[in-house]
C-alpha cells in the first residue's frame, strides 16, 4: 500500500471536501480514517487538506504545478472506488 500513495512530483496539494455527519460522506470519512496516515507518511511535505462543511457532497481536488487542478466526485462510491479515484489523481499529473 505504501507505493500506492507515493504522489507524483507535479502534485502540490490534495483537498478533500466532505460533510462531517451525512451518510453520503460516510465512505469518504472511512477512507480518510484508513488511508490518511499512510498518505502523510509517504508524502510529508505535500499538504493534504480535509475540509468539512455541513451538507457538502464528497469530492477530492488535486492541485498540480502551474495552478492546474483536477476534481473527482466521490458521492455514491464505496471505499475501494474512492481509493481508485484518489490513486489516479495523485499518481498522474496534468
- End-to-end CA span: 23 Å
Low-confidence stretches: none
How many helices? The count is: 2
Q: How many β strands by DSSP?
A: 4
Strand order of the largest sheet: 2-1-3-4
Topology pattern, helix = H, strand = E: EHEEEH
Instruction: Report the biggest beta sheet as strand number plus sense, adding barrel if it closes.
Output: 4 strands, mixed
Taken as a percent bin, the fraction of beta residues is 25-35%
Rg from alpha-carbon coordinates:
12 Å
Tell me the helix content: 25-40%
On the 0 to 100 scale, the average pLDDT is 91
Structural class: alpha+beta
Keywords:
alpha+beta
How is this fold's topology laid out?
Blueprint: E1 11-18, H1 26-42, E2 48-52, E3 59-64, E4 69-73, H2 79-91
Parallel strand pairs: 1-2
Antiparallel strand pairs: 1-3, 3-4
Helix pairs in contact: 1-2
Structure description:
- The protein contains two helices and four strands.
- The protein is of the alpha+beta class and 94 residues long.
- The radius of gyration is 12 Å and the shape is globular.
- A four-stranded mixed sheet has the order 2-1-3-4, covered by helices on one side.
- The protein has helices at residues 26-42, 79-91; strands at residues 11-18, 48-52, 59-64, 69-73.
In short:
This protein is an alpha+beta fold and 94 residues long. 32% of the residues lie in helices and 26% in strands. α1 packs parallel to α2 (79-91).
Amino acid at each position: 500500500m505504501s507505493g500506492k500513495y507515493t504522489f507524483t512530483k507535479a502534485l502540490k496539494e490534495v483537498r478533500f471536501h466532505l460533510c462531517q455527519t451525512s451518510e453520503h460522506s460516510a465512505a469518504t470519512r472511512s477512507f480518510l480514517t484508513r488511508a490518511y496516515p499512510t498518505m502523510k507518511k509517504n508524502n510529508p511535505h505535500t499538504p493534504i487538506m480535509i475540509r468539512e462543511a455541513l451538507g457538502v457532497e464528497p469530492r477530492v481536488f488535486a492541485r498540480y504545478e502551474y495552478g492546474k487542478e483536477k476534481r473527482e466526485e466521490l458521492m455514491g462510491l464505496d471505499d475501494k472506488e474512492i481509493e481508485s479515484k484518489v490513486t489516479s489523481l495523485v499518481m498522474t499529473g496534468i
